[in-house]
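Dear U.,

For the methods section draft, I wanted the exact inputs and outputs in one place so we can describe them consistently. I've listed the two proteins in the order they'll appear in the manuscript figures. Please don't edit the token lines directly; just add comments below if something needs changing.

First protein:
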Amino acid sequence: MNLFKMEGSIRLNTERLILRGLKPGDTEAVFKYRSDAITNRYQGWVPKNLEDTRQFISKVASEIDQYNSWFQFGILKKDNGELIGDLGIHFFDVEKFQVEIGCTLAKSQHGKGFAREALSATISYLFRDLNKRRIICSIDPRNVNSIKMVEALGFRKEAHFKQSILIDGEWFDDVVYALLKDEWNR
């Protein structure tokens, strides 16, 4: 993985992907894959229109590692520059040792290893460059494919919360997976 800092922003390069901060020009592409309610049925947010997506992007932190913020990487394919997903990092720990991560990919890009590649690069960056100690993922327990992927990356299940998340008037379970810096072997 290569790391580049450009004009205050961060950019990660992997074999097949470029990860860079989301920007207003990404609105239509983000809406296209995020508004697929069936594919994103385990997500906490599915935009209803372009304005929802504009607001989402406008609330994303412009710089990484800011307490009480979300930074959102856009995931782009190197071969054609297509924005195929995003990867969020929640900087919730005032002492800056822990973060939460989550990933959303366009349905057409599922099963190709892109999410795992993007997550692996981000995890390495968080542990190595930002000196994080612990990374968590919050996953709907019905999302078996995401659970398999984070387990393959070395995450372990720490908790299963019953009916702990309210989305559109309905209560859902939540499982939390975690990975410590000492456990990351890449």
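Second protein (the one for the lower panel):
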Amino acid sequence: MKSTLLAAALAVSATTAFAGAEKYVLDSSHSQVLFSYNHLGFSTTHGMFSGFEGEIMFDQENPAASSVTVSMPVVEMITGWKPREDHFMSEDFFGVTEGEMVTFTSTSIEVTGENTANITGDLTMNGVTKSVVLDAKLNQVGEHPMAGKPWAGFDATTTLVRSEFDLGQFAPFVSDEVELQISVEAQKAD
């Protein structure tokens, strides 16, 4: 659910205007993956992952040759209710240990417009790796007014089927499809 944010980082590389391959690192304080799912038809439940790490290698001459890698600790999931978070960490779902990570590694980029791209990559979550596609949009590239260095921001969306990651407990009553909204900022590495 949460690793989609990782793929969004690659969208920046597909549309920014820098010469040669340049490394960007995610701004952990301004990057989030929001997820939502239907609960028994009564409500839409939301959660978030934040504070994750990743990098983007961007090749202006050949955006399709760019890449992104992202990782986030499963235990950093926030749902707004501690008993729900504890349940997600239990054997019913992740059965998580302290160091378990969700990772995304891009495998290809298809530029679809001036500021858009489909980013395909391998998402590993709960010990399962599946290919996912992020519908990504570059929001802005330019000098950060406070940091004084090149910065990029973008959004992305995708839908995951949680049972494909062995997280299908209570489906179909609790929706198997999980919507992801990703918003990421990345700064040029020194």
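Candidate sentences for the figure legend, describing the second protein: The two ends are 31 Å apart (CA to CA). Strands lie at 21-26, 32-39, 43-50, 53-59, 67-73, 101-111, 116-125, 128-143, 150-161, 177-188.

Thanks,
Y.
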